[in-house]
Amino acid sequence: MSSDEAENLYSDGSEAQEEIEVDDYKILDTASIESTMKKQIGEIEILLGVSEGVGRLLLQAHKWNKDSITDKFYDSPDRDTFLIESNIIPTDPQPFEEGEAECEICCETTELVGLDCNHRSCKECWKAYLTEKIKDGQSEIECMDSKCKLLLKDAKVIEYLSNDAKLIQSYRRLILDKYVQSNMFLCWCPGADCGRAVKSSYGDSQLITCQCGTKFCFKCSNEWHEPVSCHHMRLWVKKCGQNSETANWILKNTKDCPKCLAQIEKNGGCNYIRCTNPACGFQFCWICLKAWSVHAQAWYNCNSFDQAAEKTREKFRTNLDRYIFYYNRYNGHRDSLKLESKLIRKVEQQMQRMQARGMSFTEVQFLRTAVDTLRICRETMMFTYVFAYYLEKNNHSLIFESNQKDLEMATETLSGYLEQDLQTEDLSKLKQNVQDKCAYVERRRKQLMDHCAEGDEKGHWAFSE
């Protein structure tokens, strides 16, 4: 490999642009990340006296923790022992056999190439093997021999890819992905075709606004979900995927087997039901849910309301009902956000009319600010219902619900005003009303968020799973 190829082992040669720093995080382009990674690799290679490519394998194995590598290195009897234990060099290096021979993979007689372990194959078989590993997302690739754990150095991988530019680029991308994924202070922007990464000062949940316009949580890379934790947001997304499309249908069209609680759908006119659970098979009446044998007795009145039985059935439906309660409110605000473009068009038309009546472009921006404020408050309201779903009841949760109610009312008041009351002749009064409502809803949102943050700090919240 030439010196130029070695220089570009981990990059395509593009120059790093200026890092964009925002508050306590930085926006990095791909070239900047590559430059930082190469610097770390170079430092460890100089420190340990190893060749290019070895440093990257060692750093990846130790999650890019330089101290972890050096501690293990100095604890080893010698450098070779350390590299053998890291699967960088073989335990018993074999002299490489030169010349043509039969490839054990494809049975073609041709020039064979291989590693220091002397496991050899033809270049085409090596390329096919490496291609599959790269497609599987592996950037640390072991020898082709199934019993050998020796890792291929990055320079060797690129050599065996036979100048296939697309494959080499995929391999470099994998290396960069593993570097970012292994670093708790780095994450990729989830925006479509963005290619930028974010470097956080403390590597925890925080709102990130990328240059591409994508807003997301640094810790989980999902949309920003304050005040919900990443853990509960993952649980909620999973639960919605399982329940949201079927929950309403289940409530309307099924009943629980009185014995095993399996959900039963009635698909005929007869009220005689046999549980479809093979382990149960309980026979009961669809109307009163009593055993059919009891229901058939002359003394039993199916038309008599059994309050105790009804309470038992309600108990088993409580969790589903509770989920639907919070899901409907969560989804209501999400649906409203989807209609934001319609409100924006309406507001922009009003802004144009106001400019036609003598107001400047700057003066009418209060309306666009109001739409942005409304969007932020709806996003907050949406996630407060996820927060509330997992929140256990106590005195602090009652205060939360009160603050949530206030923000809900303020948000709907602002929304209604923007939707219905913009057509007025008194532009000064309109501006004052909109600004007053925006200021109030922002105060209510801050009050709610501050209370949630205070609850986290002081341990006031208790959550269910």
Structure description:
The chain has 465 residues and is α+β, with helices and mostly antiparallel strands. It has three domains: 1-20 and 31-183, 2-Layer Sandwich (Herpes Virus-1), CATH 3.30.40.10; 257-304, no CATH class; 313-458, Four Helix Bundle (Hemerythrin (Met), subunit A), CATH 1.20.120. 53% of the residues lie in helices and 9% in strands. Helix 12 (307-338) packs antiparallel against helix 14 and helix 14 packs parallel to helix 16. The longest helix is centred in the C-terminal third of the chain and has 32 residues, at 307-338. The model is unreliable at 1-7 (pLDDT under 50). Pathway: Protein modification; protein ubiquitination. InterPro entries: Ariadne, ARIH1-like_UBL, E3_UB_ligase_RBR, IBR_dom, Parkin-like_IBR, TRIAD_supradom, Znf_RING/FYVE/PHD. This is RBR-type E3 ubiquitin transferase. One of its GO terms (molecular function) is zinc ion binding.
CATH topology group of the largest domain: Herpes Virus-1
Which stretches of 5+ consecutive residues score pLDDT under 50?
1-7
Summed over residues and divided by their number, the pLDDT gives a mean of 85
Q: Based on DSSP secondary structure assignment, what is the total number of beta strands? A: 13
Structural class: alpha+beta
- SSE topology string: HEEHHHHEEEHHHEEEEHHEEEEHHHHHH
Per the principal axes of the C-alpha atoms, what is the gross shape? extended
The main β sheet shows up as:
4 strands, antiparallel
CATH architecture term of the largest domain: 2-Layer Sandwich
Per CATH, the superfamily of the largest domain is Zinc/RING finger domain, C3HC4 (zinc finger)
Report how far the terminal alpha carbons are from each other. 55 Å
Helix content: 40-55%
Q: Order of strands in the sheet with the most strands?
A: 1-2-7-6
Question: What is the CATH C level class of the largest domain, in words?
Answer: Alpha Beta
What proportion of the residues form beta strands (DSSP E)? 5-15%
- Give the radius of gyration: 32 Å
Oligomer: single chain
Catalytic activity: [E2 ubiquitin-conjugating enzyme]-S-ubiquitinyl-L-cysteine + [acceptor protein]-L-lysine = [E2 ubiquitin-conjugating enzyme]-L-cysteine + [acceptor protein]-N(6)-ubiquitinyl-L-lysine
Pathway: Protein modification; protein ubiquitination
GO molecular function: ubiquitin protein ligase activity; zinc ion binding
Protein name: RBR-type E3 ubiquitin transferase
